[in-house]
Amino acid sequence: MDRLWTIIKKEFLHIWRDPRTLALLLALPGVLLVLLGYGISYESKNIPMAVADFSKSDASRQFIEKYTASGDFNFKYDVLSTDDLLNLIDQDKVDVALVIPEDFGRNVDTNETVKVQFYINGASEPSEIQTIQLKLTAISGNIAQEILVEQINRSGQASGLALPVEGLTKILYNPDSKSQLFMIPGLIPIILQVQALILSALAIVREREQRTMEQRCILCNVASFGGEAPTEGSLVEGDPQEPQATPPRLPATPSGVTDSPTVKLPG
Questions:
Q1: Which regions of the chain carry the CATH code 3.40.1710.10?
Q2: Are 186 and 179 in contact (CB under 8 A)?
Q3: Backbone angles phi, psi at 187, to 5 degrees
Q4: Of the chain's two ends, which shows fewer C-beta atoms within 10 Å, N or C?
Q5: What pLDDT, on the 0 to 100 scale, is given for residue 243?
Q6: 3-class state of residue 123 by DSSP
């Protein structure tokens, strides 16, 4: 345990003394949180919208305001023909186009059914297209319900009438449905894993540059077998407390005697 604490302390000192590693350790998590938490958003807000209002009545203006009041749609273009709407979609300037017929206000006042036309840019992401469709359907249903209640009130038949079922929805923990509150807590453990991998790689590279990687491997192997871990000086220069054994010397040969045998030639 003491060796482990010593290695941890050494790594912290290396990181503290190296400005580049310290900056990478502190700045990288913040940058990743900002980019992935706020740069990547799944919310569909301020969707560009173009409108061709042929009615020009109070009812049509209130109808348009219902779509822009929630902040989901941004009314950017008011055109005079359907061809201009289609051109804006072809130029990818808007994602939604609305066509209000000329008899919109008159039919609403006379309790008749009115049909409005929506155009959606299909070149967008499929999930975004589905989100736009759901928002348009929900807002249209709410507007139709409000107009129906107003028509009933004008007819004088509203006494004793009420909606049979009224559903109340309450969102807990994230009432505004912000994607940052969903993304950032999940990104924190992922970023910590990435930081651990980066610091491990930097530690290995630093040991390689200092040529002390082999010493660390020997220390780990000796400690894992329960042996006595040698010091760094003994690995390089030898242990001064234990002198190295010298090889045994051969006995000296007498003078005039050679080590090689003498060969006599015949004759």
A1: 47-156
A2: no
A3: -80, -25
A4: C
A5: 47
A6: coil
Percent of the chain whose predicted confidence (pLDDT) is above 90? 0
Residue 24 token pair: 């990478």
| Burial per residue of 104-129, b for 16 or more beta-carbon CB atoms within 10 angstroms, e otherwise | bbebbeeeeebeeeebbbeebeeeeb
What local confidence, expressed as pLDDT, does residue 176 receive? 74
DSSP reduced 3-state for 179 = helix
Phi, then psi, of 162 in degrees rounded to 5 = -155, 160
Band (pLDDT 50/70/90 cuts) for residue 132 is confident
State the average pLDDT for the chain: 75
Which tops the pLDDT comparison, 36 or 93? Answer: 93
Amino acid identity of residue 67, one-letter, is Y
Residue that has been written with the tokens 């036309």 in this structure: 117
Tally: H helices and E strands in the chain: 9, 4
Contact between residue 78 and residue 53 where contact means Cβ atoms under 8 Å apart? yes
What topology does CATH give the domain 47-156? abc type-2 transporter like fold (3.40.1710)
Q: Compute CA 203 distance to the chain's CA centroid, rounded to the nearest angstrom.
A: 26
Q: Six-digit token pair at 129?
A: 């297209």
Whether the per-residue pLDDT at 31 is higher than 70: the answer is yes
| Alpha-carbon span 170 to 123, nearest angstrom | 34
Three-state DSSP at 47 gives strand
**Which residues on adjacent β-strands are paired with residue 49?**
75, 96
At position 109, the amino acid (one-letter code) is D
